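[step 3/7] inverse_fold.run input=structure_tokens len=376
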């Protein structure tokens, strides 16, 4: 918006204001602002866009001043106002005015999902297949009725977020973020939300706050002489409940077979419990890496791993069985191979002396050690 379009709604731009500084502690009390039935000065482009003037039955807002860049000011007062208004200045000095109002719709229903990770509530709107939409049950309900009292809740919300700090050039953090979301042209940035979308998300909590202790219907179904209820009253509403449950027993005849598995599992657990009660104490696990490493270093060489030095076992060497044995006199543990496969037995009988075959990595070791001994 241009400064000229806002001049009729900014007090400091009026002849009465004369560009003087605003006493922020008293605004708007004590200022010569026309009251109803005055509709203030008309700006056709703005009036038709926001619905101002006698034609729409809504007076335009009056802001104390034009905010400096990165700042916002609020208007939350007025004659029977149903909206609050925010005036923001972008980093480039362009002005943007937003109006916020709330209305009741009949084209929505509420979905709440409760899970172990937490609850989630969302609105399902304008879905022709939604049978729980309010309008499907109350055909005489009017869609889009403005909730005038919401403006009072929104006024407290705006002040709590320091959206009126621009009256003192306060440069509040929320105002700075909102001003940076003002579109710089006629098209919206697809990678960023607009200031209107950001305000809608920020003010969404006020809708829940405003609906607290309110009836589930759009009319007052109590006596007209009763303004408020002294005691809470139950109200019925249309709902669809879906849930998942888990059975602890069989739901079909064939599932009884699982009792056999459960019985065996129980018997195994009882056996393990009895074993540990009779043989209590710690047991060394020889297959832990640090134990196997010590056993390997302190075990004699085995012809079953002939040729596996440095390169690892392969072929029939991988199917060899190994046993952990102990020399009782010296209390020394070592690893010894089990039964040798027939092919390896033949190779063993042909060997006159106990001698390991050359490992495939010996040549590489010799080559590195003779040329670059510093690498080893």
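[step 3/7] decode complete -> sequence:
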């Amino acid at each position: 918006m241009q400064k000229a379009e806002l001049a009729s709604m900014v007090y400091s731009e009026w002849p009465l204001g004369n560009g003087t500084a605003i006493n922020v502690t008293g605004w708007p009390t004590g200022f010569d602002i026309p009251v109803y039935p005055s509709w203030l000065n008309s700006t056709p482009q703005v009036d038709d866009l926001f619905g101002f003037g006698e034609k729409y039955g809504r007076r335009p807002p009056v802001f104390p001043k034009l905010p400096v860049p990165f700042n916002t000011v609020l208007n939350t007062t007025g004659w029977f106002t149903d909206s609050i208004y925010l005036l923001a200045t972008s980093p480039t000095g362009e002005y943007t005015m937003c109006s916020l109002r709330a209305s009741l719709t009949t084209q929505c229903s509420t979905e709440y999902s409760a899970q172990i990770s937490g609850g989630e509530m969302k609105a399902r709107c304008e879905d022709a297949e939604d049978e729980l939409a309010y309008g499907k049950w109350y055909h005489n309900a009017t869609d889009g009725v403005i909730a005038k009292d919401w403006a009072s809740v929104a006024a407290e919300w705006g002040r709590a977020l320091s959206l009126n700090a621009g009256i003192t050039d306060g440069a509040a953090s929320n105002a700075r973020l909102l001003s940076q979301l003002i579109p710089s042209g006629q098209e919206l940035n697809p990678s960023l939300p607009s200031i209107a979308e950001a305000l809608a998300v920020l003010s969404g909590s006020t809708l829940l706050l405003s609906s607290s202790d309110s009836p589930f219907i759009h009319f007052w179904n109590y006596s007209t002489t009763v303004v408020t209820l002294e005691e809470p009253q139950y109200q019925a509403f249309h709902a669809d409940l879906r849930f998942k449950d888990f059975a602890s027993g069989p739901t079909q005849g064939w599932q009884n077979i699982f009792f056999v598995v459960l019985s065996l599992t129980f018997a195994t657990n009882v056996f393990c419990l009895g074993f540990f009660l009779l043989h209590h104490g710690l047991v060394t696990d020889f297959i832990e890496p640090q134990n196997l490493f010590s056993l390997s270093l302190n075990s004699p060489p085995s012809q079953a791993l002939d040729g596996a030095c440095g390169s690892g076992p392969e072929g029939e060497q991988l199917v060899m069985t190994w046993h952990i044995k102990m020399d009782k006199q010296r209390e020394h543990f070592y690893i010894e191979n089990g039964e040798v496969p027939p092919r390896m037995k033949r190779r063993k009988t042909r060997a006159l002396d106990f001698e390991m075959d050359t490992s495939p990595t010996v040549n590489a070791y010799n080559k590195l050690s003779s040329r670059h001994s510093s690498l080893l």
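[step 4/7] annotate
The first strand starts at residue 72 and ends at 75.
Residues 258-278 form the longest helix (21 residues).
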